[in-house]
Amino acid sequence: MGSKVTPHKVILDESEMPTSWYNIQADLPEPVDPPLSPMTKEPAGPEDFIPLFPMELIKQEMSQERYIEIPDEVQHVYKLFRPTPLQRAYRLEKELDTPAKIFYKNESVSPAGSHKPNTAIPQAYYNKMEGVKRICTETGAGQWGSALSLGCKFFGIELEVYMVKVSFEQKPYRRAMMEVWGAKVHASPTDETESGRAVLAEDPNCPGSLGIAISEAVEMALKRDDTKYSLGSVLNHVCMHQTIVGLEAKAQLEKVDEYPDVVIGCVGGGSNFAGISFPFAKDKFDGKDIRIIAVEPLSCPTLTQGKYEYDCGDEAGLAPIVMMYTLGHKFVPSPIHAGGLRYHGASPLVSKLVHDGYMEAVAYPQTQVFEAAMTFARTEGLIIAPETSHAVKCAIDEALKCKESGESKTILFNLSGHGLLDLRGYDEYLAGNLVD
Amino acid sequence: MGSKVTPHKVILDESEMPTSWYNIQADLPEPVDPPLSPMTKEPAGPEDFIPLFPMELIKQEMSQERYIEIPDEVQHVYKLFRPTPLQRAYRLEKELDTPAKIFYKNESVSPAGSHKPNTAIPQAYYNKMEGVKRICTETGAGQWGSALSLGCKFFGIELEVYMVKVSFEQKPYRRAMMEVWGAKVHASPTDETESGRAVLAEDPNCPGSLGIAISEAVEMALKRDDTKYSLGSVLNHVCMHQTIVGLEAKAQLEKVDEYPDVVIGCVGGGSNFAGISFPFAKDKFDGKDIRIIAVEPLSCPTLTQGKYEYDCGDEAGLAPIVMMYTLGHKFVPSPIHAGGLRYHGASPLVSKLVHDGYMEAVAYPQTQVFEAAMTFARTEGLIIAPETSHAVKCAIDEALKCKESGESKTILFNLSGHGLLDLRGYDEYLAGNLVD
What we know:
Two copies of one chain form a homodimer. Chain A is α/β, with parallel strands linked by helices. Chain A has two domains: 232 residues, Rossmann fold, CATH 3.40.50; 170 residues, Rossmann fold. Chain A contains 17 helices and 15 strands. In chain A, the strands form four sheets. The first copy, chain A, has a seven-stranded mixed sheet with strand order 1-4-5-15-10-11-14, sandwiched between helices. In chain A, strands 8-7-6-9 form a four-stranded parallel sheet, sandwiched between helices. The interface between A and B is large, with 43 and 43 residues.
């Protein structure tokens, strides 16, 4: 493998951009357990999702088709930043003195700075096609809220974002970013929803959580006929939209005669990890020898320490109940900088594949994660998101194992986002104030 | 022209990256007036620059060679982010309903987020080659300081940055970015230099200025044998390093059978503008019909309202004296958000070409500039730097002229940097608090 000299960046032409997403449900060795209605606790049918999502996304959520075509309008918007580069981390390899080859798929080049627009754009598009006027969503640190703001602006849909209050106050520039793209941003919990008022009645100073914000967004979507809800991770259709990441990476590696021995992504809800890994998991089902590693924070160890069981996706229990690894829907993770990984559950598809042994999971404390991010910034130059830094920490560990064993493995990780709006975390790390 | 369908992004392969910079001094219809020594006020020779710069950069500053080869080590680092994409602004064109074709060269994809690494990397390299241990520099809003931090980290040189105090306090994350890349950052004026102490004696609460920060950095470089100084704009060699931007853009336009009718860049010291425009100015000297427009803030109107005369580059008069458009080296521009454009002078090369009629200059107030930036963010998606927004405002105006005249002109501008660390300006604009 890899007899050619690999360029620093492996580029796909726009004409080589994948025109379909990959739906792993078509190839699962065993199907996932069905979601349950939050009302009846019985298996949910399409009708249970109709108040929340446009029909096309509901169909995708349940589809068994292997490939689903990306609409032309979505492809057109994707091409503002896709195909994204696949980069060879030559300078990091040299620093580690490893025989491993490290590749990263650079999703930080999107206007919102992460992989999130890959699903925000089609979600906005399908809502628009079905006449939806307004979308409600939640956001933690703001990555998802800003990506959906961008998508909604492009397709002329109003967006209301319920942003976890502590982030709303600490990250005014994430809020500004959403407003630049036309969204209305609320600090959650608000007194505008029943879920919010219930929380505030117990604790008027509640700093908010992702679970509470989801409850508020779902409640507001359910209340209005012209309004739907949108989720930035966890669900099957979201994971599927992200597979363009892995499909491109696979085509790019083929261009330089490479195939990964190890594929790595960080996991919050699971969508960036699904995106990079599902097209390779397909090969693993067919017997390919490949390791796929999900990386999570030690302070929110869903896959490594959670239970595999049915649980609610949100705090108030309004969203569908799914079979997944979970720390319990009342779990409140500690306020680590990787806000996007602070979720009590995980994608049912990712959970199933970890549970059934097709994928592994590891967890790291945040000081080690920031140390890896510093190494990356000082070799490859890029200042990456705290979430992404989890994947980098794992890639470095795998590369160092290769140094010990002398193996020249090919390691691929998803550089899911930049950290230019997360420099406070770096500042605390440099000042020695970061704790695990 | 332009019979092919242009893709959204015109990509060059790494093998197509230019391997030389273009030195416009070889082609100037008339040579520029020589710099003067700040000590003797006589024309400066190489010996006057030796305390400040490594010999190779002094040679480049005075060179009459048309092309100067980019060292392999510099090319290697460039390839972390170069060649950068040339993008067709389809969505902006549609919004403006213009027959014009708008292209932008996207320099925001560098790790530091701007064009500045194009010169920071070779400057660090040449210093390293000549045994320099430490570099001192100044930075206003932080773009240059962060780019040079990156360059120095890659080549193992210590960096001390004198950052204008008001920015140091207002932009802690720019400081953090420099520290991530290993630089030591001082709030200027400091009490560590004579220039700084002199300023503080008059005004202990002085918020600093670029002119003062330059004086401090130059003074500290002059004091120590193992230390040199580095400037991020204005000088001939800096402008030359930036020509990789225009050389790539030209090759990219050729790929889609296009040639610009108008080339646009914002001007602070002049280097990003020189970078995009000098390779096209060469054609203009040969008789090509092309307009080249420098865009500056109305509150710091160097090219449109300054005098063309010899003036100091810094406040204390330690740096060489050059022939340029200037507002006077004691001029203190108002605190607009485009901190990178708040400089009293401009590149002697750019000044000469504007003075001699080869280039035009226009000035805009910052509210109009932010309005243009909002239009860009809401169509093309990218949140751009306030400096860059000046170029966008001009590109929009030129495109709207085409709408009136019905002409399908090809407009090229330099998207010199993103605005992800400048969201405070957008926030003020959205809140209606921005003033001119």
